[in-house]
Design goal:
Layout lengths: L1 H17 L8 E6 L9 E3 L8 E2 L13 E2 L2 E9 L2 E9 L3 E5 L8 E2 L24 E6 L2 E2 L5 E7 L6 E11 L6 E9 L5 E9 L4 E8 L9 E5 L10 E2 L7 E3 L9 E6 L8 E4 L10 E4 L11
Antiparallel strand pairs: 1-19, 2-11, 3-6, 4-8, 5-6, 6-7, 7-9, 9-15, 10-12, 11-12, 12-13, 13-14, 14-19, 15-16, 15-18, 16-17, 20-21
């Protein structure tokens, strides 16, 4: 019994130390895949959507200013930065936030002083700062136009389900001749975040926020975003050195069809031990052997 109790304690200590993961520890990969457009799912907004927060399935047209709600089910428990989430909120400006259904009507909270810069701006007063968890694919002041749509769909079967949020035919605020198409994907199998780009027609140069962030609110130190300078290739983006880092988008500088930005959490260590002997009279000298398997980083203690 003593041996069993000690092993359980060692395992719990290891899990506790691993529970929170800085987003900067996520592995980033860029590759090109076919862009598969959603044709069905939960439809949100309309051709007039502009800054709307979609946080309540009962209000598919969203809220113009009120940014909290029960959220939309992810379909599985999604670990982000070591915190578990099961619902999301969606903003017309190209980003989502993660939430917890246990918080009821405040499960998601998308409050921000500027919905167009979701990674670098927020508001204080979050009862649970973990609700600052956000993912931006095209963080900018966007708006819908004719034939625009936002679709939300769950695909696959456990444990390989994927939640996809898609923006189709969006444009920057008051800009004509633009057609922005992109998706955010949450994957159950490896808890990765994918951002995929479809056709991107741009009329003038601008900047976007792309990446991940979470608590704390101020200063915003927990983030993993991408920086693309003027004249640089999207395929050669760099890790942002500030939460305000951005990507330049123009009619000559844009992601190719199927461009895929992917962030994967580091693998957790697997705690395991053996003991010899496993029984005997007290006092008993027991030799423990560490059989733990390191994850993405070596076990230091």
């Amino acid at each position: 019994m003593k041996k069993t109790t000690l092993l359980a304690l060692l395992v719990l200590i290891t899990i506790g130390l691993w529970s929170e993961i800085p987003l900067s520890n996520y592995a980033f990969n860029y590759f090109v895949t076919p862009y598969t457009e959603l044709s069905s799912g939960t439809s949100l907004g309309n051709s007039s959507s502009d800054d709307q927060c979609f946080t309540n399935p009962a209000v598919p047209l969203g809220y113009g200013s009120y940014a909290a709600g029960p959220g939309f089910p992810i379909g599985f428990d999604f670990s982000f930065g070591g915190v578990s989430y099961d619902v999301i909120g969606i903003n017309a400006n190209g980003w989502i936030s993660l939430g917890k259904s246990s918080l009821g009507n405040l499960a998601v909270d998308m409050r921000s002083s500027n919905f167009g810069t979701p990674l670098s701006t927020s508001e204080g007063g979050f009862a649970d700062e973990s609700l600052l968890a956000r993912i931006a694919a095209c963080g900018r002041d966007l708006q819908a136009q004719q034939d625009s749509s936002i679709l939300l769909a769950l695909s696959g079967t456990a444990p390989n389900r994927v939640l996809t949020v898609q923006w189709k035919n969006y444009r920057r605020k008051n800009m004509n001749n633009e057609n922005l198409n992109f998706q955010i994907k949450l994957s159950e199998a490896d808890m990765s975040v994918g951002i995929l780009y479809g056709e991107m027609t741009v009329s003038a140069i601008t900047t976007l926020q792309i990446g991940l962030r979470s608590a704390p609110a101020n200063p915003a130190t927990n983030f993993a975003n991408r920086s693309i300078a003027n004249g640089s290739l999207w395929s050669e983006s760099l890790a942002g050195d500030s939460v305000t880092s951005a990507a330049v988008l123009s009619h000559t500088q844009y992601p190719q069809l199927g461009a895929h930005f992917n962030w994967s959490p580091p693998l957790a260590p697997q705690a395991d031990f053996s003991a010899n002997p496993i029984s005997g009279n007290c006092p008993l000298t027991v030799q423990f052997t560490d059989l733990s398997i390191p994850g993405s980083h070596p076990i230091s203690s």
